[in-house]
TrEMBL record:
GO terms for biological process: isoprenoid catabolic process. Gene3D superfamilies: 2-enoyl-CoA Hydratase, Chain A, domain 1, Lyase 2-enoyl-coa Hydratase, Chain A, domain 2. Belongs to the enoyl-CoA hydratase/isomerase family. SUPFAM superfamilies: ClpP/crotonase (SSF52096). It holds the Pfam family ECH_1. GO terms for molecular function: catalytic activity. This is Enoyl-CoA hydratase. InterPro entries: ClpP/crotonase-like_dom_sf (IPR029045), Enoyl-CoA_hydra/iso (IPR001753), Enoyl-CoA_hydra_C (IPR014748), Enoyl-CoA_Hydratase/Isomerase (IPR051683). It comes from Pseudomonas frederiksbergensis.
Amino acid sequence: MNSLPVCQTLLLELHNGVLHITLNRPENRNAMSLQMVAELREVLATVRDDHAVRALVIGGAGGHFCAGGDIKDMANARAQGTEAYRDLNRSFGALLQEVQHAPQVVITVLQGAVLGGGLGLACVSDVALADHQAQFGLPETSLGLLPAQIAPFVVQRIGLTQARRLALTAARFDGTQAKRLGLVHFVEHDPQALAERLEEVLAHVLCCAPGANALTKKLLLASAGEPADALLDQAAQWFSEAVTGAEGVEGTMAFVQKRKPGWAS
């Protein structure tokens, strides 16, 4: 067993071959900072070839999963120009690709806010469990931005027709609707039921041979087709142009100032 990295934004607990990863920025509803992205990628790299780790369970502290990207990181990138935005955006896409291709079974436990990048993480998990009151959504276009790295994975998860509706309206929906869309597999009505469902799923996972699971996952992903590196690179460029353009500036400022942007007034 490789020693796990020391993390400031994640809580890590390894038990019986299952690594529980808790996004731990509850004061920001676990918004995905650059540091959190880097730490998640380091954890994934550490356990990638560790056959003793058979499943990864990703959840969030403080009653929320993840409220999307960290606006503070975007504000810091503003002074550095479009390349900084592009690199910031693309690093999250790399994280999604790495979660998607993790040889372990990846399970997400979704409560509270599951927005933007949080929804993207749900879309690259092998099994998704949700509280019925969890709030899902792609709010990027309401901020004058693009769900740049997330969009291809959302399309792959729920299909183009529904992805178009959700991304182009920034609509919010709950856990029950997420199950209807095929985004999540199980919906529960209280924390105890959610915990019991997780234990049930893990029991099934641990009945399967880890090597066979890893190769089966690789086969399934190859069969379904993968979001290409070139597409995610182009998306990151479009994101950087959007966030520094008039709509992106107005949308992010409106969010920080807790007001409607000009186009929604």
